[in-house]
Amino acid sequence: MNRFSRLFALLAMAVLAGCGKPEFSDAEKKTIASLALSALPPLKADTTNRFADVPAAAALGATLFFDAGMSGDGKVSCSTCHKIDRQFQDDLPRAVGVGRTNRRTMPLAGVAHYVWFFWDGRRDSLWAQALAPLENPLEQAGNRAAYAHYIKARFGERYERIFGPLPDLSNVPANASPLGSDAEKAAWNAMSGAQAEDVNHVFANIGKAIAAFERSIAPPQTRFDRFAAALDTGIQAPQDDDALSPEEILGLKLFIGKANCVTCHSGPRFTDSGFHNTGVPPVANLPPDRGRIDAVAQVEADPFNCFGAFRDGDASACGELRFMVKAGPELVRAYKTPSLRGAATRAPYMHAGQFSSLEEVVAHYSKALASVEGVSEIHPLQLSDRERAALVAFLKTLAE
User: Fold this and answer.
1) Please, what is the Cα angle at 284 between 282 and 285, to 5 degrees?
2) Number of H helices, E strands in the chain
3) Where are the beta strands (DSSP E) in 24-142?
4) Burial call 324-362: b when 16+ CB within 10 Å, e when fewer
5) 306 annotated to bind ligand
6) Residue 187 to residue 41: CA distance in whole angstroms
7) Paired residues of 117 in beta bridges
8) CATH topology match: 26-44+221-291+333-397 vs 55-215
């Protein structure tokens, strides 16, 4: 640490650790208030899924979420990667279902507030997202005809109370999908159009039920939120259990100031829900991963997207898809800004687990190395060791 940095740190600590309350400008207080969980707006209705807030649908969705029968081998469920006791993620660099995937499992708290889903945004609704792992050969590795038969055999009565009568599946092959193995594709292509539509309709409702359950997963209040509430009311005292330490306050000031973290990690979920190239390096021996630029074609081709036949409601809900940015250098190796809530307890980090600790993450942003493809949006922060440690200390308050 150079002489100037040491002096800056000492002065900051002296101010923050003084006999009075921590000092924040009006602009800082406004920003801090915007980050508090109390600023999270009520969850909007999902007009593309009329079952999104139906308790019976959420109950069925919870059953399906934890049911290993919802997989090709009968051993993997949504909860295999989204573990209920681990913030609905798995602590692995890359998720492991039937096989090992190429990306990190994302936590689910507050997921219903997102517009785009997955690290690259290749699905445009929570219910469409829920369908993708079911047929992914590395995740649950099933096929949609088999899922339709499974629902009818095991959950038929519950399904029909929510969604109405199941179609006649007696002549539908046991295994068929436009994705999957050659045999599954051939079986799908041999089906009539009406049969395919029936299966797709049941499959879409599976996603809608799972999404109804996932909408209920909300982020918990943290020590930062309690601090923000006390700061807003003006009753925060240095000795309070929820008070931030001088180091944590310095980290907060850096987060919303000099370090510019709040530029992307904004709002009460600590994410702008956007896609950014931040120069995160690729992982050796994994297939090329170009992020958002390749996801555009995938979301457009998805038969379950907002323009598709299985959307509830009218197309007025499809503004994001209609006005989606489809091309541009800013999409190359751009990934969704993850929420920082609870991040301190769910290492490793980034879309493929490239960094093992928050210290490594902060060091990456401090150095701001060039991206291997496209142009990184970040610039060197020139943070001292003390400032890096303070940032990490603050981030830990989002998980306590």
Assistant:
1) 120
2) 14, 2
3) none
4) beeeeebbbbbbbbbbbbbbbebebbbbbbbbeebeebb
5) no
6) 46
7) 123
8) yes
Is a pLDDT exceeding 70 seen at residue 2?
no
Under 8 Å between Cβ of 77 and 140: yes
Q: Which helix (H) or strand (E) holds 275?
A: strand 275-276
Give 65-80 pLDDT, tens digit per residue.
Answer: 999 999 999 999 999 9
* pLDDT at residue 22, as a whole number: 72
The arrangement of secondary structure in 55-215, i.e. its CATH architecture, is Orthogonal Bundle (1.10)
Q: Is the peptide bond between 268 and the residue preceding it cis, with omega within 30 degrees of 0?
A: no
Dig out the tokens for 220 from the structure.
């918990």
Q: Is 81 annotated as a binding residue?
A: yes
Cα Rg, the chain, nearest whole Å: 23
Domains of the chain, by residue range, sit at 26-44+221-291+333-397, 55-215
Q: Which CATH class is domain 26-44+221-291+333-397?
A: mainly alpha
233 contact partners, CB below 8 Å, separation of at least 6 = none
Residue 366: which residues within 8 A CB-CB, separation 6 or more? Answer: 380, 381, 382, 383, 388
Find the angle CA(339)-CA(37)-CA(359) to the nearest 5 degrees.
40
**Which token pair is 184?**
């599954």
Structural tokens at position 177: 């999908």
CB 305 within 8 A of CB 299: yes
Nearest-angstrom CA–CA distance, 141 and 6: 55
Q: Is 364 annotated as a binding residue?
A: no
Would you state the pLDDT for residue 6? 47
* Residue 318 is labelled as binding a ligand: no
In this structure, are residues 256 and 32 in contact, taking their beta carbons and an 8 Å threshold? yes
Distance CA(205)–CA(158), nearest Å, equals 12
pLDDT digits (tens, 9 = 90+) for 165-194: 999 999 999 999 999 999 999 999 999 999
8 Å CB contact between 134 and 206:
yes
Give the CA-trace dihedral at 40, 44, 48, 51, to 10 degrees: 100
Tell me the torsion sign for CA atoms 77, 298, 181, 201: positive
